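Same chain as my last thread, 371 residues:
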Amino acid sequence: MNQKISREIFKGLALFLLLILGLLLSFELRGVLISLFAAFILSAGLRPFIAYLEKRGMARGPAIAVTYLGGVAISIVLGLALINIAFIQVKSFVTNIDSKIATAESFVNNSAPFLKDYIDFNGIKEGIKNGNIDIKSLTSSQFFSRILENISFFGGQGISIVGKIFGGVLSIFSIIMISIYMLSNRKSAYEDIIELTPNKYQKTLFPVFKKIEQSLGAWLVGQLSLMLIIGFSTFVLIMLPRIFDSSYPLVSYALVIAIIAGLLEGVPNLGPIFTTILTVFIALISGASVGVVIYIVIAFLALQQIEGIFFVPMVMKKAVNLNPILSIAGVLAGFELAGPIGALLAVPIIAMVQILIIEFSNNWKQQANEI
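reply #2:
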């Protein structure tokens, strides 16, 4: 009896140590795991489209090639067009920056003195005074050339910047290649792994992971759709006052703000708040009236409500709904552990865990009721 108890204690301790070791190893390899998970989400989102092309008579290989090459081509064309227009708007914003900084400093001194501890206006003014870039005459191509010229390839900072850029490009390329490999196989990536388990577990695992794949794919498509909808809606809201006021200042920065709003939509709940704060700040230092600031706050709050009532249910109807508190906590934790990428992937990770908990809990209850 004592030997049996000792054996059970040993097995429990061994499993606990293996669990701790697995968690530590996962944390150390979180970059690799994040890339694999991102590739799985990408393949899950594209798999229905690949299947649709196959039904239309296209072979799987060409269908994958057309999908990725088309996506890359569209991204490059739109990216270059948007970057050039956004650069013009940023240059317009930076022009006469001295007076705009003075306006912002006056606002902080009079209305928000607590911000003095966080904003070094003297340092900003000194940096602009000592700068040697003529913003007014600078073109977008010259801007990127100046950036490359001012990177010290022999200094630690320059090497760090180049290393981060190269690492980011390599990660994106790796994610795309892994997702292509996943899509080249008609079976999903998890099916081969599940088939290694005993048959009695396969009946439970297959439908659970199939549901996870469908939910993550729907989340990806829905999230991209929401980013486009919010970006376009933000652009329209910012441009609207121009109809009534020809001197409305924010019209010059509408595209930049819309792009930022669309990108920040990838960070649920927190993104729209940051967009509103940023837009109000730009309005203030651009000399906008109090009425414009009030309009921005009301319009953006209304857009958030419309998004929650109409856009999210319509676009995310096949994805998993999460509690807002859980989403915010997950985003903050993801950012702390893995930076912006971790914050972006926090929601699908939590959604996957939620599905696992719900499905296995329901299965356990069903088995308990059958006994």
